[in-house]
Write a structure and sequence with these properties.
This protein is an alpha/beta fold. It has helices spanning 2-10, 20-52, 55-81, 96-124, 133-160, 163-189, 197-224, 230-241, 276-294, 310-324, 360-377, and strands at 248-256, 262-271, 297-305, 329-338, 344-352, 381-389. It has a three-stranded mixed β-sheet with strand order 1-2-3, covered by helices on one side. Strands 4-5-6 form a three-stranded mixed β-sheet, with helices on one face.
Length: 392
C-alpha cells in the first residue's frame, strides 16, 4: 500500500504516535504529500480546462491550488503547535493546530465564493464547451488521485488525532464530488449544445462552500470547548475505580489544549475510616499511572465518604430510590447527613441530564420537587441540593 510505504520510509518509529516528534513528522508528511499531489492536479486540470474552455474545470483546478496553500498552512501549524510551553502559554501551543485547520476551512470558502462569481458570469455570457477525450481522461485520473489523498489524510489524521489532517480529508472528498460533477458536465456537453458549463460551475462552487462550512464547524468545536471523547471518559472512570479504596467517581472535567495535551480533573470517593496517608498514597499512584497510560495530565480530588454508618447508608439508599423516579437526574454525589435529633439535613449534589437547561427557575423547581419526594418517604429529612451540569 502506497500510504504505508510512505509512512515507513519517511517516519522513523511510526507506531510511537505518543512521541511528539513522531506526531510532528506525520503532520509534515501529510503537508508535503498534499502539496505535491495538489500541484500535479492543478496542472492537469488547468490544462484540461483551457483545452475545453470550461469555467467549471478551471474552477476545480484553482480549488486544487488553494489546497496547496492549505497544505502549507498544515505544515506551519504542526511546526508552531510543537513549540514547548513557555511563560505566556504554560500548557503549550497545541491549539495552533486547530487554528491551522480553521485557516484551511476559510481558504476553501474563499475559493468557493470566487468561483460563484465566475460561474454567474459564465451563465450570463455562455461560451461553448467542446468535449475532448484527453481532458476527460485527465479529469478521471485526477479524481482517483483525490480519492487516494482523502484516504491518506484520513488514515494519518485518525492515527494521530489531527483536526487539520481530518479537515484536509473532508476537503479532498468535496474535491472528488466537485470533479465528478465537472466530468459529468463534459460528458453531457458531447451530446448537447446547451450552455450548462456555468451552471455546473455553480454547483461545484456550492459544494466547495458546503465543505468549507463543515470544516469550520469541525475545527471550531475544539477551540470553543467540545465535550470530551466518550472513550477517554470511560477509560478514566474505569481505570480509577479499579484501585483499592476508590468506591466512586464524579465531577470529571476535561480540558483540551491541543492533541496530546489534555488536562483532566476528577473527584474520587474514598472510605472515611482509612488513614489520610493511605488514601493519599492510592490517589497519588492513580494520578501517575493513569496519566502515563492515557497520555494525559490527571488531577484527582479526594472525597471521604461514610461506608459503615447504617443511618447514613439507609438515608442514602432512600434518596437513591427517590432520585431514580425523577427523569432529569443522572446521578448524585457528595452525600452527607447533618444535624442532631430527629430532624436532619441531607446535603448532596445532583447531576442533571443534557436535556435539562439549568436556570434559576428550573433549579428551584427541581430542588422543590426533590424535597417533596423525600418528605413523602422521610418527613423529618430536609434536602439541601446543589444542581450540577454534566460536562462529559
Amino acid at each position: 500500500m502506497i500510504s504505508q510505504k510512505l509512512i515507513t520510509k519517511f517516519i522513523k518509529n511510526s507506531e510511537d504516535i505518543k512521541n511528539k516528534k513522531v506526531r510532528e513528522r506525520y503532520g509534515y508528511l501529510g503537508g508535503v504529500v498534499g502539496i505535491l499531489v495538489n500541484l500535479v492536479l492543478f496542472l492537469i486540470k488547468i490544462t484540461a480546462g483551457l483545452l475545453v474552455n470550461s469555467i467549471a474545470v478551471i474552477a476545480d483546478a484553482f480549488n486544487n491550488l488553494s489546497d496547496v496553500g492549505a497544505s502549507l498552512v498544515t505544515i506551519f501549524g504542526f511546526k508552531l503547535s510543537s513549540k514547548p510551553a513557555d511563560k505566556e502559554h504554560p500548557f503549550g501551543h497545541g491549539r495552533i493546530e486547530y487554528i491551522s485547520g480553521l485557516i484551511v476551512a476559510f481558504l476553501v470558502i474563499l475559493v468557493g465564493f470566487e468561483f460563484i462569481k465566475s460561474s454567474f458570469e459564465r451563465i450570463k455570457n455562455p461560451v461553448p464547451v467542446e468535449f475532448s477525450l484527453l481532458p476527460f481522461i485527465l479529469l478521471i485520473i485526477s479524481i482517483s488521485f483525490k480519492v487516494w489523498l482523502s484516504r491518506f489524510y484520513r488514515g494519518i489524521g485518525n492515527k494521530i488525532n489531527s483536526s487539520a489532517l481530518k479537515a484536509s480529508s473532508v476537503d479532498s472528498i468535496s474535491d472528488v464530488i466537485s470533479s465528478s460533477t465537472v466530468v459529468i458536465s463534459l460528458l453531457i456537453s458531447k451530446f448537447t449544445s446547451l450552455p450548462i458549463d456555468g451552471y455546473i460551475g455553480l454547483v461545484v462552487s456550492l459544494v466547495i462552500l458546503y465543505a468549507g462550512y463543515n470544516l469550520i464547524k469541525d475545527t471550531l468545536n475544539p477551540l470553543l470547548g467540545v465535550a470530551p471523547d466518550n472513550d477517554l471518559v470511560e477509560d478514566i472512570q474505569k481505570m480509577l475505580l479499579s484501585y483499592e479504596h476508590i468506591d466512586g467517581v464524579h465531577d470529571l472535567l476535561v480540558h483540551n489544549y491541543g492533541p496530546g495535551r489534555i488536562i483532566a480533573s476528577i473527584h474520587a470517593e474514598v472510605p472515611l475510616d482509612i488513614s489520610v496517608v493511605a488514601a493519599h498514597e492510592v490517589i497519588d499512584r492513580a494520578e501517575k499511572e493513569i496519566s502515563s497510560e492515557l497520555g494525559i495530565y490527571l488531577l484527582i480530588h479526594m472525597d471521604p465518604v461514610t461506608t459503615k454508618d447504617e443511618e447514613i447508608l439507609s438515608a442514602k439508599r432512600e434518596l437513591e430510590e427517590v432520585l431514580n423516579k425523577i427523569p432529569h437526574i443522572s446521578s448524585f454525589h457528595d452525600f452527607r447527613v447533618v444535624g442532631e435529633g430527629d430532624y436532619k439535613n441531607l446535603i448532596f449534589d445532583v447531576v442533571v441530564k443534557d436535556d435539562f437547561i439549568i436556570t434559576k427557575e428550573s433549579e428551584l423547581k427541581l430542588q422543590k420537587q426533590i424535597n417533596e419526594e423525600i418528605k413523602k418517604v422521610s418527613p423529618n429529612h430536609n434536602a439541601i441540593i446543589t444542581v450540577d451540569a454534566s460536562f462529559i
